[in-house]
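Box 3.1. Reading complex inputs
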Amino acid sequence: MISTGLFLGFFALLLIGVPISVALGLAGTGAIFAAKLGILAVPTNVYAGIAKYPLLTIPMFVFAGTIFERSGVAQKLVRFATALIGRGPGSLAVIAIVVAMMMGGISGSGPAIAAAVTGVMAPSMLRAGYPSAFTAGIIAAAAATDILIPPSVALIIYSVLVPSAPATAMFAAGVIPGTLAGLALILPTWWLARRHGFGANATGEPRPPFWSSFRDAFLGLFAKVLILGGLRFGFFTPTEAAVVAVVYGLFLGIVIYRTLSWRDIYQMMVESAEISAIILTVVALASVFGWAMSTLSIIDPIAQGITQLGLNQYGVMALLIVLLIVVGTFLDGVSTFIILLPLLIPIAQTYHWDLVWFGVILTLKIAIGQFTPPMAVNLMVSCRITGARIEATVPWVGWLILTMLLTLALVIAFPALALWLPHYLNLN
Amino acid sequence: MTPPELSSPTAQPRVSLKIEEFLAALALGLVALITFANVLIRYFSDLSFAFTEEVSVCLMVIMTFLGASVAVVRNHHMRISFLADRLPALWQRRASIFSLLMIHVMFLILAVSGALFAYDDFRFEVTSPALGLPQWIYTLWLPLLSLVVAGRAAGAALRLLRGPTP
């Protein structure tokens, strides 16, 4: 009775448009009231939910990402990628994907990246003759996929919630599947653009010089080397790696590129604090919901019900693919993990699935959901900027969903694709 | 993380939002400084600076509530607007007001219960694990800043109510 109320209350508030965090918090608080569990459980869980040292990584990476985005790294990556690939048919589309994925690795927020890359790439793509629906679709897909690429906030949240999957291992495990996912977006995009002759108008403009664009882009990409290398060799904890990236980004923006003023820096601090606060508010209030769920013993019956459906582990995996892609179309990766992991981890343990591998495939599923029409947030953002209708993106995005599903099938069939690198680096 | 172009413009609040913006940015800056100082000190000396972790964590909690307050006024909190956006204008406005009221209620509950929570830390003289400081100087921020968020939500709801009806 109370458990039904918990879920119904949550979904009703969610559908009306109440923030996800507050819908979780109010439903949880309501259940705590109804079951007379004591009001003090609410503030205790809110405080304990966010007063955790590993979560400090989130504001630091968000800050670093904002600095790299604002100091013009995206434009420099576009120039370098153009020098590398040229301006033939389809090349601008491929460049947009590569840049969205490289930026995502540095920042970690899908919709923000979708907005930034659409802003940088869409005008020249539309001029070069790409249809707006095609442009919006591929940028949304690339920005969705970046939650797989380290250092992503979704992977950090997963590692905070699943102690046996440390952040460094999750980052390493995301590298090969992330690269495969990138190829799964680039190949069909290239093929579609060539087949329909998109971007043929862009060949007239000159190619930027290789070495100067390489030097500019290299300084930006070096941040990634710094973060991942520092983590790999144990120089830094994830939080420290993030703060080193902040300092490096500020150095780049103020001294080398000279694109940042003190005013910009203050503005970026305000923005990063707000974005991190939005994520952490979900974390804080979701822990009230999570506590109510586990105290009322709601999770175990559901998890047992799923494992006793009489399906084998592949059947359960197929069920989870559908569930997570559907949830991923309307919730972001962070909220999905916080709400569903208490249910999903016991299921994974029943089948003795490796939790690092499990985290990677969950993230892949959510990534697919994040650009599946009609509700995906990334798609809404890129369509809003390019002026395309979401329905019009279906013929293009459909191909990308298909190849991403193939990538997911590959990682499910060959867990080594995710697990080889962390094992090789001795991270777990 | 609704990007700016998806949020609806609301009238400006009477108490400037710059207060929370400045304090949230300050908290973020302090966390970055402390963490970076930690890295430097660990590499150039044998001293451990690890006890600062609890200060950083408390600053992050403070930043969360201040940032949440800014996000309430700017309508930036993550939400599913798919259904609400398809309602007729009058009902859209009602849904927005209802949503703000729910935020107000949630943070009011947090302010009241959080006050009890911090008072328990004070009454039982709980001390912090690393620095041995009274725990209530950390937990006090939860009810205090929840009140700020609740106030911002109420203010935004009032502005919508008094504003032009569609």
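In summary: The first helix of chain A runs from residue 2 to 16.
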